[in-house]
Please model this.
Amino acid sequence: MKRVLGLALLVIAGATLGIAQSRSHSLPGVRRTWRIAFVRDGGIWVCAGDGSGQKVLIPNGYSPSWSPDRSRIAFGRDGEIWVAAADGTRQQALTFGRAGHTSKDETPSDVTISWRPGKGSLTFSRREVFNAERADRAPGIASPRAVAPVSVTARSILDVLVDGPQPSTATARYDLLDRGSTFVFADHAHPAWSPSGRKLAFTRNGDIWVTTAEGGLPGDPRGDWEARRVAAVARFDEPVRRASRDNRCATRLSWHPDERRLVYGYDRLQGSGFNEVHLLDTRAGHDSVVVRDALEPCVSPDGRFILYRAYGEACGPDGFCVCAISLDGRQRVKLVSKGSQPAW
Model:
């Protein structure tokens, strides 16, 4: 009897393992025709939607972003924004003049690029350096630090033409000098245009904001847009006696095709061990965790899956990898080893 029971348990365990393995190697509905761009070894790689056919597309680049029609790809290189054909040819710089003026704190993850549908332009974020000093020099005010001017590092959101004269001059949309709000915000990042181009989501000091074109079709100048905070998710503290920081905020954003839901990364900054991918209903305010130990999410073209960078148990000995997960979080597959910054 014990032997029969043991054999039964072995069969069940084997079946369970078989199911787990099949789920780890395939995800029903993920299409091979979708092209994935990701970063590995300092360059941009591409593969099919199921992870097959991996090859180098652009040897020196980061933060890839496909155009709405998938005919071109934008990316960062040496602090500038570039664009190329989908096969990696015809590479062209869209911005210029940052050599020697980039923030020493800037990393590839600080650069996020989003194509503006139907407008022939890109919206992107990056670190900028501003000079600051006390202008009034009021007597009787003692500064806790040196009185000499200091540099303030902040992230800005800018626009640049893709099809105009090149290289072009980037125009600030939101930055430290922005006066669109009563408050002064130092950090604007992770812009994400909705598929119709009617909405632009971004992070502002770690919270999630959405700006919408009033009166239907999007237009310029920026006065035609209404910005509102849709999720106050940021948490900040300051270390006391070398205590660890617990700064948490929204990071990379990606719209669902219904233009109601947003997928975003929720990360612990200046630390490690806390990264989640969330799904936010921007109308109802409902916020749920899709997957933990995950960051840099990107929604699939049909809205059924989320592409993201994973680490830990999901990646095994690779350390980190690119995975895809169903929107409900029930099915997951590892697609790419040692990849980051994935884009569908």
